[in-house]
Amino acid sequence: MNTRIENQRTDDEQRVPALRLMAILDRHLALHRHLLQLAYQKTDVLKRGDTDGLMQLIQKEQPAIAAIQQLERERAQLVAAWSGDENPPSLADCLPKIGGEERQKVERLADELLAVIRELQAANELNGQLIRQSLQWVTLMLDQWLPQPPNVTYTAPNQNAAAHERARSLFDSKA
């Protein structure tokens, strides 16, 4: 009978971290889905050229990003304590310690999280491209509206004209 109680205690000791890990992954998933929705909203705002709307969305992202960073610290601490290793193993390394139904739930949550993260990366890449295009357009318009300086000095034939143009630019598109 003592063996049965000890086995039950060992199962519970393994189940509690698994349940905490599932809760952390579930919260990660919810926060990343929230960021994904904000990324889609950003795409619409960027297409409309609504800078005020963009700033509001960026402000909405900040608490979610901070919460994700905190969850990641909690996950790392949980996995490190669970494994007893100084270098926390990955989620895949922990799966053998999780049994049955909990393991299936953790795997499902991890797969869903990975899919949402990939979709978020794609949306952010699109938003980055839209921002770069907007910056290029602004630079083009500034170049069109600003008067061209008269060429009153002699330029050596082998001097790079592009260096002169870069020095004249008021806006760095790589910002």
List the helices and strands and how they pair.
Elements: H1 2-48, H2 51-83, H3 91-94, H4 100-145, H5 161-168
Helix pairs in contact: 1-2, 1-4
Overall CATH architecture: Up-down Bundle
Distance between the termini: 69 Å
Characterize the largest beta sheet: strand count, sense, and whether it forms a barrel: none
**Which class best fits the helix and strand makeup?**
mainly alpha
- Write the H/E string, N to C: HHHHH
Give the overall pLDDT as a whole number: 81
- Which regions contain 5 or more consecutive residues with pLDDT less than 50? none
Gross morphology is elongated
Our Rg estimate from Cα atoms comes to 26 Å
* E-strand count: 0
CATH superfamily: FlgN-like
The CATH topology assignment is Methane Monooxygenase Hydroxylase, Chain G, domain 1
CATH class: Mainly Alpha
Give the helix tally.
Answer: 5
Total of domains: 1
Helix content: over 70%
Percent of residues in beta strands: under 5%
GO biological process, one term: bacterial-type flagellum assembly
Organism: Geobacillus subterraneus
Pfam families: FlgN
Keywords: Bacterial flagellum biogenesis
What does this structure look like?
This protein has 175 residues and is mainly α. The protein has a single domain (7-146, 162-168), classed as FlgN-like (Methane Monooxygenase Hydroxylase, Chain G, domain 1, Up-down Bundle). It has helices at residues 2-48, 51-83, 91-94, 100-145, 161-168.
Label this structure with key terms.
175 residues, mainly alpha, Methane Monooxygenase Hydroxylase, Chain G, domain 1, elongated, bacterial flagellum biogenesis, Flagellar protein FlgN, FlgN-like_sf, FlgN-like
